[in-house]
Design the sequence.
């Protein structure tokens, strides 16, 4: 379907508006999305304290916890979104709208990044103040680059998942549930990924969070360099590759899954 | 309604709960789904421990946090599972009005729906403990486990968690958007405050005070004592087993009574405010 460029831009703005404005309208997010997750994170910090770990490991946990917000956003606000729209009866409206599906997903991604960043920064600041974490940033521009590339690859992956979830039933929800703790483990959110072994770490590198977190730790903590998986430059290169693969993959996956969904009559079925 | 009717409600809602939880896939895949998350959560702790401690060091602490984490799954799954029922019925399946119209006590409906989660979690906990003993070097002497105390603590603890879940579910009846995260967020709070994975002695003083008020703190202590034969917490080691049992029974009874009255109050407010079947598309 050929669509007008300006119409698609407006669609991106509309989809991101919900998350940028609506998501922050109620101040309760300060408690539910920031304070309460910080409590669960604090438990891991206290475990490291009980084991007598260096202070940098508390920093690993807080940084990992802040990045958890992005993974949860990818799972629930990106991947599961089309499934939810299908359950609410809105998916057919999206599909007959004169906009590209990619513009819908891009709008969701942009809005999701903004909304999640507000929460992640709040968690990071609170966590650092609470546990007196100090950073030793080696290069701010490299840190920013690693962070941006991680988000691009992560949300590209989210866009791919959104395509798959469009035609799935309840298994979509369950898959998102199953991809929480296992991904926390494989990404080394709360401990250096290298402790899983280099081989497992390299396989886990297909998850953008693994490489991004390892790179950010190397650039913000001296302990991060000692426990690194790959060099920062290698991780930057791999993140670029993952971003390209996932973004192109999402375009293809969306077309394939939409066609399959129309053929099998799954785009409007609910509660299966 | 008679107790026979209430038990029938529990039975039917349990069947419904199982169907929702399990019939989306093949039984083998479902079994895998049941254990993957708990195992991953336990492995996170295993690697946190292995990163810092060298071989043979702090094994007692490792066993302490591993066992605590395994049993804490009841809190995460059951608490958030029961509170999620309100959101599921109201927003997703939009059946809430029919459930409230039918001649069933909603309190027992929540209990029945929660039993599916309990049974799944029992399997997950057993698998996690067996993995811990066989693969991760957790030393549990099965011949000296205090099985009666373990059974008592488990049943009492699960009851308390179910009542907490019902209280949270009823609170979610009055909210539009927060029910989505309420269960997980509250479970996270308890994770820290109850010392699920570390002795509460290392918490700051004010947080220790909160720990001592929460019934789950004593439940976890009882589980660890019965399985591991002792306590690592200087704060709690002064409490005898019978005192611990008394605290658990007392707090569970209080929670149960509060859950019943809170449920009546919340349902009344929700009916008056028209929130019983509100749909927010959230």
Sequence:
């Amino acid at each position: 379907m050929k669509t007008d460029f300006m119409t698609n831009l407006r669609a991106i703005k509309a989809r991101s508006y919900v998350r940028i404005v609506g998501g922050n309208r109620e101040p309760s997010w300060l408690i539910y999305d920031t304070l309460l997750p910080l409590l669960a994170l604090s438990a891991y910090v206290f475990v490291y304290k009980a084991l007598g770990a260096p202070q940098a490991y508390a920093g690993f946990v807080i940084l990992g916890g802040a990045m958890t917000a992005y993974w949860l956003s990818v799972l629930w606000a990106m991947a599961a979104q089309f499934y939810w729209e299908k359950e609410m009866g809105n998916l057919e409206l999206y599909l007959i709208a004169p906009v590209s599906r990619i513009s819908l997903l891009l709008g969701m991604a942009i809005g999701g990044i903004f909304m999640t960043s507000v929460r992640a920064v709040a968690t990071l600041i609170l966590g650092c103040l609470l546990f007196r974490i100090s950073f030793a940033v080696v290069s701010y521009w490299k840190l920013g680059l690693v962070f941006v590339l991680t988000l691009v690859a992560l949300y590209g992956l989210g866009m791919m998942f959104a395509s798959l979830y469009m035609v799935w039933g309840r298994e979509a929800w369950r898959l998102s549930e199953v991809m929480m703790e296992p991904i926390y483990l494989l990404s080394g959110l709360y401990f250096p990924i290298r402790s899983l072994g280099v081989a497992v770490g390299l396989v886990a590198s297909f998850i953008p969070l693994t490489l991004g977190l390892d790179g950010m730790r190397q650039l913000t903590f001296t302990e991060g360099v000692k426990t690194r998986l790959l060099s920062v430059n290698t991780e930057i290169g791999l993140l670029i590759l993952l971003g390209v693969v996932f973004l192109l993959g999402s375009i293809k996956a969306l077309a394939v899954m939409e066609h399959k969904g129309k053929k099998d009559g799954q785009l409007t079925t609910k509660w299966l | 309604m008679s107790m026979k009717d209430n038990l029938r409600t529990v039975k039917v809602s349990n069947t419904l709960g199982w169907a929702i939880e399990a019939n989306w896939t093949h039984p083998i895949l479902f079994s895998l789904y049941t254990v993957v998350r708990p195992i991953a959560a336990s492995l996170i702790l295993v690697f946190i421990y292995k990163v810092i401690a060298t071989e043979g060091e702090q094994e007692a602490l490792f066993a302490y946090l591993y066992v605590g984490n395994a049993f804490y799954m009841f809190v995460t799954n059951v608490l958030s599972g029961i509170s999620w029922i309100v959101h599921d019925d109201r927003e997703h399946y939009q059946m809430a009005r029919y459930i409230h119209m039918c001649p069933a006590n909603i309190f027992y409906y929540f209990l029945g729906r929660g039993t599916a989660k309990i049974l799944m979690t029992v399997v997950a906990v057993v698998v996690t403990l067996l993995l811990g003993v066989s693969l991760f070097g957790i030393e549990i002497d099965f011949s000296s486990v205090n099985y009666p105390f373990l059974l008592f603590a488990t049943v009492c603890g699960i009851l308390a968690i179910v009542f907490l879940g019902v209280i949270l579910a009823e609170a979610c009846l009055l909210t539009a958007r927060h029910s989505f995260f309420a269960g997980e967020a509250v479970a996270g709070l308890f994770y820290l405050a109850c010392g699920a994975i570390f002795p509460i002695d290392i918490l700051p003083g004010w947080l220790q005070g909160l720990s001592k008020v929460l019934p789950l703190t004593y439940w976890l202590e009882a589980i660890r004592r019965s399985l591991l034969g002792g306590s690592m917490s200087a704060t709690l080691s002064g409490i005898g087993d019978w005192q611990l049992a008394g605290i658990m029974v007392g707090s569970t009874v209080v929670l149960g009574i509060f859950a019943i009255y809170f449920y009546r109050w919340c349902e009344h407010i929700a009916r008056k405010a028209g929130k019983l079947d509100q749909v927010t598309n959230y």
User: Anything to note?
Assistant: Chain A is about 75% helix and 0% strand. Chain A has a mean pLDDT of 87. The two ends of chain A are 29 Å apart (CA to CA). The first helix of chain A runs from residue 5 to 20.
